[in-house]
Amino acid sequence: MMNFVRKNLKIFLWCIAIAFIGGVFLWNFSTRRLIDCVVQVNGTKIPYSSFLDSVNMRIRNWYDQNPEGELSDDQRREIKSEVLNSLVQEQLLLQEAKKYGIYASQSEVINTIRSLPQFQKEGKFDPRLYFYILQNYFRTEPAIYETQIKRVIANQKMRDFIISSVKVTDQEVKDEYERRKLKDKEEDFKKDFLQEKKILFYRQWLLSLYQKAKIINNLDKIEGGS
Fold first, then answer.
1. DSSP states along 131-161
2. Is the pLDDT of residue 85 over 60?
3. Distance between CA atoms of 30 and 222, rounded to whole angstroms?
């Protein structure tokens, strides 16, 4: 038996080396695949690169507003958490919008972009200003930005669709008005009360989406808990 081992020792060592190299390769390959996905929402993968782009934009915005400041580690973690939550929420809304056949048309995207003040000069849309801001401030391409605007519009339409069913009766308004012992006009309060109910209804609906969703968060695995 020992003679057999000695005669085949080189073969055994080569097998061990190959197995080790293969293991390292597979580990690196799986790690790269993991890094490509920061979170999964009902099977839909959100790229880590998209997450980083959003985080970096938020950080740039913070420094624009606080040029003399310095972000703490806790603030950076908070930004990452907020960005991750917003990406998950966006994906949940997009999935629901798709179920209901709610989309944003290209004309809606164009009209929205043209109406944004940051892309206007003397009250009119300026293409040069648009491309300049995308390239130098947002650091993105028109196609990517317009896709994001399309998602925002679709999500807003989905939100409007969900809260459109929320109503308040005159009796509800009267009872709540008296309960709060307000001095404002009851008619003005009715608008505020309706808006409150819409916000509450939307939050509850959104919470139900989170509770039913299958969400796999890979951020800690990617960044090592940083």
1. HHHIIIII---HHHHHHHHHHHHHHHHHHHH
2. yes
3. 11
At residue 209, what is the residue type? L
For the CA atoms of 135, 33, 209, 56, the dihedral, rounded to the nearest 10 degrees, stands at -30
d(CA 193, CA 196): 5
Question: How do the residues of the chain divide into helix, strand and coil, expressed in percent and rounded to 5?
Answer: 75, 5, 20
Does pTM top 0.90 for this prediction?
A: no
Kind and range of the H or E run holding 213: none
Which amino acid is residue 50, in one-letter code?
S
Q: What are phi and psi of 72, to 5 degrees?
A: -85, 165
User: What is the average per-residue pLDDT within 105-123?
Assistant: 95
- Buried/exposed 93-120: b ≥16 CB within 10 Å, e otherwise: bbbbbeeeebebeeeebeebbeeeeebe
Residue with tokens 């003397």: 122
Element (H, E) at 182: none
